């Protein structure tokens, strides 16, 4: 069960490793042990797009990041990502993003980048390997203090959702939202991880948010369908678990962190919760690089 979810995820990994090379579908299929036809058929079945289109979109996205973040000549970027000429690269860029590479380098405004496909999740892994949360031994969740300066948050606040799954099921296109925010990653508030989720509170209701923290003086473009709000400086209690194996441990780690975050008494550290007004809770989720954390704003107890 889920053999092909895992296999297609291996195809995604292979594509990501070879975006700037001339590796072929034949080479990939030989590595995986299936025919090129069967690989492309299963890829389309699980991702909703052809393998050719996926490679094209991921290649132009990586090229766009180099246009934005480096001073390389456009011709050199075009050649690196397999385009026959700068003109061919420009045509593909315009078709994907509605502007030329030169215009994007100058404006750096949000564009709909393609995000990496994910079709093999911890759930699939658990079923395949018969690994369940009760079998995993986790270390203690850490609790620490962090001060985050005043900043703006660009994203979507959905009062009808209070968790990650419901948020994306409530009419928000994950690929579109994540792709736009990825194009704004160079604006991320220093010291933060980039795309961030969390919770907010309005008139006694708890909603879910998704977006990117940027500096308090950001004056750039705001993607259509998103808002920009100023978040005051605050201290946060950080409930943190260090880097872990996403496939094996994700569900257990998230449950352990969130259980502690929602049950902890800040009075133990001479704090009280301070989640009123424009302040909001944050999630940081980068399993192999950072780990997982829930951040809740606090203030000193009087």
UniProtKB/TrEMBL annotation:
InterPro entries: Homeodomain-like_sf (IPR009057), HTH_AraC (IPR018060), HTH_AraC-typ_CS (IPR018062), MarA-like (IPR050959), Tscrpt_reg_AraC-type_HTH (IPR020449). Pfam families: HTH_18. PROSITE patterns: HTH_ARAC_FAMILY_1, HTH_ARAC_FAMILY_2. It comes from the Bacteria. Coiled coil: none annotated. Keywords: DNA-binding, Transcription, Transcription regulation. The keyword Transcription applies. The keyword Transcription applies. PANTHER family: ARAC-FAMILY TRANSCRIPTIONAL REGULATOR, RIGHT ORIGIN-BINDING PROTEIN. This is AraC family transcriptional regulator.
């Amino acid at each position: 069960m889920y053999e092909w979810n895992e296999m297609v995820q291996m195809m995604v990994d292979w594509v990501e490793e070879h975006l700037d090379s001339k590796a072929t579908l034949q080479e990939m299929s030989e590595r995986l042990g299936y025919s090129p036809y069967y690989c492309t058929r299963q890829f389309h079945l699980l991702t909703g797009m052809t393998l050719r289109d996926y490679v094209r979109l991921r290649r132009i996205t990586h090229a766009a990041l180099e246009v934005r973040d480096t001073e390389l000549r456009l011709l050199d970027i075009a050649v690196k990502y397999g385009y026959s000429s700068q003109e061919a690269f420009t045509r593909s860029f315009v078709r994907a993003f509605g502007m030329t590479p030169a215009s994007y380098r100058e404006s750096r405004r949000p564009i709909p980048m393609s995000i990496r496909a994910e079709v093999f999740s911890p759930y699939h892994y658990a079923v395949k390997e018969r690994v369940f949360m009760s079998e995993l031994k986790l270390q203690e969740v850490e609790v620490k203090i962090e001060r985050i300066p005043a900043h703006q948050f660009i994203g979507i606040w959905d009062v009808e959702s209070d968790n990650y799954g419901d948020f994306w099921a409530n009419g928000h296109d994950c690929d579109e939202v994540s792709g736009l925010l990825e194009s704004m990653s160079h604006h991320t508030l220093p010291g933060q991880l980039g795309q961030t989720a969390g919770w907010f509170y309005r008139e006694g209701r708890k909603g879910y948010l998704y977006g990117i923290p940027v500096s308090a003086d950001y004056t750039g473009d705001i993607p259509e369908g998103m808002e920009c709000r100023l978040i005051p400086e605050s201290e946060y209690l950080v409930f943190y678990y260090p880097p872990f194996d996403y496939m094996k441990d994700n569900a257990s780690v998230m449950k352990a962190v969130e259980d502690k975050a929602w049950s902890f008494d800040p009075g133990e550290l001479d704090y009280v919760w301070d989640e009123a007004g424009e302040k909001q809770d944050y999630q940081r989720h980068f399993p192999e690089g950072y780990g997982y954390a829930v951040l809740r704003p606090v203030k000193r107890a009087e």
